[in-house]
Q: What sequence folds into this?
């Protein structure tokens, strides 16, 4: 038997059994009325005195050994000659039981005293309570307490149980006291407790275990301890037990385990990176999805806040990291969401949709934020492809309009001329001058028609390859020099000069034939539309800036044109700005188409009689 409180002499006295309490040093602290009646001693007379100091020399050695074991928590019975007041000593049986504090540490020793019988003592039955400290303590503790009688054949019978026993099991005390354990405890718990009862008796030590038993109140889980009590002959006569009810604790643990299990399954089922931001500690607890999505190995978890903020794209920090901190610390909002770019462990960038719920205390201060990062890179790429397709469709629609113009105007005129001259030939004499003239005009019209059809084929060919699928590193300086050599005679005839300031080391991803066409059309136009007022000078240059791409410029000091008047039609098909030289108005259209096919864009700046500069920008 153990108790979770130290008795007080101010409490009611309810038991006839004589009892007293010793502190951990073996000194008297409290006596009950029955003990005073048995021995004549009062609490005031013995409080603070050593227990062994009341005994004679012959009794003291065995009493000290008994007290030492009792101070270790062992329940023992000792027979002593107790000195009476004004009368002879009489034999008394003293049975010890440990007194435990709230943390279940030993705080003292309780001792039950009764006159020693002339015959071998039978296991005493606890009496009906009456004004006793022992009963108050026994009945008021929340743990289940019980005492079992141990028969010579190791039959265990309930001698006493407290009210906590009835509350926990639903079995009335009157139906339990006096009955064997096998009549109260069902299988499979019965076999378990009998084994531990036997272990306590054979080892002469307190034994503790956990068990689950079905009672009328339902399934109960408890931590059970039994302590054997031995008589002076060394025979176990009682088992004193207590049960700490773990049912509620185990249910909480099981509910928590089930909740954690469900949470882990949710984490496994989602591809998002779930996180829990402890705002006060500024740490982030990550779910498994973080490593799976972004490849960052977490040496420890939770991590510092910077594990997230340091990998946000620099251009997105203001509208993501700074915005989040503002919402958390300067508002009372409970929801936040943003799209931004987040760097993967391999250096690539993922497009992320991040949203979280902010938990605030009663004062409105943010304490936690639970959220998830969703990788939307594929969706963003699909949106970009869709945007590009829409743009290409718009451009193709514009081209179709230009093709309609070609069919209605450029094609119709030579075709109508050809038909007219063919009709005239049918009415003219074959060897006449009129016949020969009509034949020459017919050939000219057919040649014009063939040229226009060739132009249309060229345009359709370019549009069918809007983007080159496999770019190759193109040696720009070599291509520029090749075009210069092609135009060498034309340059010599006009006294012009081309300066190529492109680094021999520069390689630009693209298509060599496209770059050749670009340089040829731009340089040929510069020669064709040169000014007669000054020698032609053409400069070709290229600069590469890490992170910003490559810029190629072609600048001349030729005639130039009125850019404001030309507006947005500079690169349209069959647009011409000078009538002094022959041309079809297809060169700049091809330049723009080739540049865009390689992922770039082209701009132009021009002033009349000052010259023209074309700027090509690539990735």
A:
């Amino acid at each position: 038997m153990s108790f979770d409180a130290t008795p007080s002499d101010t409490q009611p006295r309810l038991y006839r059994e004589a009892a007293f309490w010793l502190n951990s040093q073996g000194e008297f602290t409290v006596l009950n009325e029955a003990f005073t009646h048995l021995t004549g001693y009062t609490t005031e007379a013995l409080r603070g005195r050593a227990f062994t100091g009341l005994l004679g020399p012959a009794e003291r050695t065995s009493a000290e050994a008994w007290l030492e074991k009792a101070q270790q928590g062992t329940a023992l019975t000792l027979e002593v000659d107790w000195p009476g007041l004004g009368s002879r000593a009489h034999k008394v049986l003293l049975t010890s039981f440990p007194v435990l504090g709230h943390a279940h540490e030993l705080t003292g020793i309780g001792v039950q005293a009764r006159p020693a019988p002339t015959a071998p003592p039978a296991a005493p039955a606890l009496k009906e309570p009456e004004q006793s400290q022992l009963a108050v303590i026994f009945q008021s503790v929340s743990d289940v307490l019980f005492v079992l009688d141990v028969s010579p054949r190791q039959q265990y019978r309930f001698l006493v149980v407290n009210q906590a026993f009835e509350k926990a099991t639903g079995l009335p005390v009157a139906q339990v006291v006096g009955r064997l354990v096998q009549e109260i405890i069902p299988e499979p718990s019965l076999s378990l407790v009998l084994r531990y009862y036997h272990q306590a008796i054979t080892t002469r030590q307190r034994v503790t275990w956990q068990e689950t038993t079905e009672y009328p109140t339902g399934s109960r889980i408890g931590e059970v301890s039994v302590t054997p009590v031995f008589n002076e002959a060394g025979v176990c006569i009682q088992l004193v037990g207590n049960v700490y009810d773990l049912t509620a604790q185990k249910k909480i643990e099981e509910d928590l385990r089930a909740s954690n299990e469900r949470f882990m399954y949710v984490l496994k089922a989602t591809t998002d990176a779930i996180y829990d931001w402890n705002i006060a500690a500024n740490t982030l607890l990550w779910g498994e999805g973080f490593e799976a999505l972004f490849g960052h190995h977490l040496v420890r978890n939770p991590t510092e806040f910077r594990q997230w903020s340091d990998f946000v794209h620099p251009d997105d920090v203001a509208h993501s990291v700074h915005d989040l901190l503002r919402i958390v610390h300067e508002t009372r909002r409970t929801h936040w969401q943003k799209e931004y770019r987040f760097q993967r462990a391999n250096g690539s960038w993922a497009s992320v949709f991040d949203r979280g719920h902010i938990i605030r205390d009663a004062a409105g201060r943010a304490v936690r934020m639970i959220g998830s990062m969703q990788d939307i890179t594929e969706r963003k790429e699909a949106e970009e492809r869709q945007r590009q397709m829409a743009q290409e469709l718009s451009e193709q629609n514009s081209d179709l309009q230009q093709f309609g113009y070609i069919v209605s105007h450029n094609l119709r005129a030579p075709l109508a001329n050809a038909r007219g001259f063919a009709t005239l030939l049918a009415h003219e004499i074959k060897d006449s001058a009129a016949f020969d003239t009509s034949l020459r005009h017919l050939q000219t019209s057919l040649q014009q028609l063939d040229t226009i059809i060739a132009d249309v084929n060229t345009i359709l060919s370019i549009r069918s390859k809007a983007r080159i699928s496999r770019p190759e590193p193109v040696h720009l300086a070599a291509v520029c020099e090749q075009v210069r050599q092609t135009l060498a005679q034309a340059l010599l005839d006009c006294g012009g000069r081309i300066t190529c300031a492109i680094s021999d080391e520069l390689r630009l991803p693209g298509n060599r034939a496209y770059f050749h066409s670009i340089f040829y059309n731009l340089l040929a136009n510069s020669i064709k539309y040169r000014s007669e007022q000054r020698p032609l000078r053409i400069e070709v240059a290229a600069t590469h800036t890490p992170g910003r791409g490559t810029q190629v410029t072609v600048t001349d000091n030729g005639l130039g044109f009125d850019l404001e008047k030309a507006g947005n039609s500079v690169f349209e098909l069959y647009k011409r700005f000078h009538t002094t030289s022959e041309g079809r108005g297809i060169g700049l259209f091809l330049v723009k188409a080739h540049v865009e096919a390689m992922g770039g864009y082209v701009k132009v700046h021009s002033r009349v009689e000052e010259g023209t500069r074309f700027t090509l920008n690539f990735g």
Remarks:
- The chain is about 40% helix and 30% strand.
